[in-house]
Specification:
Elements: E1 2-9, E2 12-19, E3 22-26, E4 28-31, H1 42-48, E5 53-56, H2 57-63, H3 66-71, H4 73-77, E6 83-86, H5 89-95, H6 102-111, E7 116-117, H7 130-153, E8 177-180, H8 186-198, E9 203-206, H9 210-214, H10 218-231, E10 237-240, H11 247-253, E11 258-261, H12 263-269, E12 272-275, E13 278-281, H13 293-297, H14 300-304, H15 308-336, H16 339-347, H17 351-360, H18 364-369, E14 378-380, H19 389-401, E15 410-415, H20 426-434, E16 438-444, E17 448-451, E18 463-465, H21 478-490, E19 496-501, H22 503-506, E20 519-524
Parallel strand pairs: 4-11, 5-6, 6-7, 8-9, 9-10, 10-11, 14-18, 15-16, 15-19, 19-20
Antiparallel strand pairs: 1-2, 2-3, 12-13, 16-17
């Protein structure tokens, strides 16, 4: 497998995934098409820029059988780009079982030339007791072992017979998908991920998230993705069933690279109209808030008055335009280094999405994958922004790598006024003259402390923050106090600390821990004058 990463932000990646029928860019929404009944043609999907599609190998097997094996899935569905095939997991989730074995499905997927085949698995779903979920995970792994035997029998010379650890899983260049089960039982998710990684999969899919998303359990979904990424940090990951314009940015930010869904047509059949901030019922609209070809051609009344089949097709096309637009917006946010801002903007559309952000802020791998330097300044609006990865990384750097100058025995804390660059400002020169042999630090509710000597580095000098943070309680910024306490504990050479205190700082001073020998002088910022 070739997966080339071009650009990153948070845990998101703009990359290129190569398959036998061509490459496509990630993150990518992969539309589901029915192999028999196609209301939206694959050619239309390709014209919109969808470079990969997914279809159901089990339904293809039931309807076409040997014909599909002779002609290949690309001719059956009339699409010449990469095709992913689901082996019947959705049917298992819906009906409990399918009348086909894992080995038969694996051979069929190979015979029809699937680019990204999925082994027949046992979806966990959501809400199962632990022991039941565990048995489903074990059944999925057993099915995958059957699939691996089929791959070996089809001519792969890269698979070792010595043990269960394989170097590659491919007989004809196809990209087999390791389907991870476990749902909200995160230890099972980590176990499933690790086992499949050892078996040689280089592409993975998180199974059974649809019921979580339908229940709006986005916080659990975030933890599910985190459990997967903690076991498989670098390899591309697919999220089954993600087809809502609000959930895609969150999933991308958490590290998912591809998504599939039939939402565009399912929503259309239910008269549901996608927008960038959610879905609306067509009958509730007075205007069409979109400029796609469908919305530019019809009024609301004209669309409502259409024959049901025609209306469904037009709504489905509109929904596809919205999904394409969403993917483009997410990619641009990654490229600009503004994915944090974009995801928070989306999260404000629904409280359950904001719950997921509060879970995400504690994921270490998000910080580890965020670039150290960016081309643009970061924007800071509210207390939640203190947890954005750039600031978490900055605070770690300050505690682990910074020490105050050896010739200073006093510390001046001065409120950050947004002067950039502070390092060469006239204010710093005046402060340095008035307070010689003093370590000067700006304080900022988002960053904590910014020593003057490093105030020109990213992101200390590359940010714009709101000035009215005084409206928040000082206790809304716990990371500020944690940073100040850690800084003073490490730099314990200060005999005196002079604090020029604004309203924000005054609320925190009683909680700042200093050494007994340290003299602390506090002066009101409004009455402070340089000597």
């Amino acid at each position: 497998m070739v997966f080339e990463v071009k650009c990153t932000d948070l845990a998101a990646r703009i990359g290129k995934l190569t398959t036998p029928h061509g490459s496509f860019e990630t993150p990518a929404f992969i539309p589901v098409i029915h192999p028999v009944k196609q209301q939206i043609s694959p050619s239309f999907l390709k014209s919109l820029g969808f470079e990969c599609i997914i279809t159901n190998a089990y339904i293809t097997f039931k309807y076409y059988g040997e014909k599909a094996q002779k002609q290949g899935i690309h001719r059956i569905v009339n699409f010449d780009g990469p095709i992913m095939t689901d082996s019947g997991g959705y049917q298992v989730l819906e009906y409990g079982k399918v009348n086909v074995t894992p080995s038969i499905m694996a051979q069929f997927e190979l015979d029809i030339g699937s680019d990204i085949p999925v082994p027949l698995d046992k979806p966990t779903g959501y809400g199962l007791p632990y022991n039941t979920a565990k048995s489903y995970v074990e059944e999925t792994i057993s099915n995958i072992d059957e699939t691996i035997k089929v791959i070996k029998n089809n001519g792969s010379d890269t698979i070792s017979d010595d043990d269960d650890t394989y170097n590659s899983l491919s007989s004809k260049g196809e990209l087999w998908t390791g389907t991870i089960q476990g749902a909200e039982h995160f230890d099972l998710v980590r176990h499933s991920s690790s086992i499949l990684d050892k078996k040689g999969f280089s592409f993975f899919a998180i199974g059974s998230p649809v019921e979580l998303m339908e229940a709006y359990e986005f916080s659990i979904l975030a933890q599910l993705i985190e459990a997967t990424k903690s076991s498989i940090p670098n390899k591309p990951i697919h999220l089954f069933g993600a087809g809502h314009p609000l959930t895609i940015p969150l999933a991308v930010a958490l590290g998912c690279d591809t998504f599939d869904s039939a939402s565009y047509i399912l929503y259309a059949r239910a008269n549901r109209y996608m927008s960038s901030s959610g879905t609306l019922r067509l009958e509730d609209l007075s205007y069409l808030p979109c400029c796609c070809p469908v919305c530019s051609h019809f009024t609301v009344k004209e669309l409502n008055d259409e024959e049901p089949d025609s209306r469904t097709i037009n709504l489905a096309k509109h929904n596809l335009f919205i999904l394409k637009q969403e993917m483009a917006a997410v990619k641009q946010a990654i490229y600009d280094g503004r994915l944090w801002e974009y995801v928070l903007q989306k999260a404000r559309s629904h409280p359950k999405l904001m719950d997921a952000i509060h879970a995400m802020k504690n994921f270490d791998y998000i910080q580890q994958n965020t670039p150290i330097f960016k081309h643009k300044a970061i924007y800071l609006f509210e207390p939640l922004d203190q947890f954005r990865p750039e600031l978490v990384n900055y605070r770690k750097m300050l505690i682990n790598n910074y020490s105050s100058p050896a010739n200073t025995d006093s510390l001046l804390l001065y409120p950050d006024q947004g002067i950039r660059p502070f390092y060469s400002s006239s204010l710093l020169k005046k402060l340095s003259i008035s307070y010689p042999n003093t370590s000067i630090c700006l304080y900022n509710p988002f960053f904590g402390l910014i020593p003057a000597e490093i105030s020109d580095i990213y992101p200390a000098s590359h940010n714009i923050f709101v000035k009215n943070f005084d409206k928040y309680d000082s206790r809304d910024y716990p990371e500020f106090l944690n940073l100040v306490d850690s800084f003073l504990k490490k730099n314990d050479n200060f005999k005196s600390i002079h604090i020029v205190a604004n309203k924000f700082m005054k609320g925190l001073i009683p909680h700042i821990k200093t050494a007994e020998k340290t003299e602390v002088k506090v002066e009101d910022f409004r009455g402070f004058n340089l000597k």
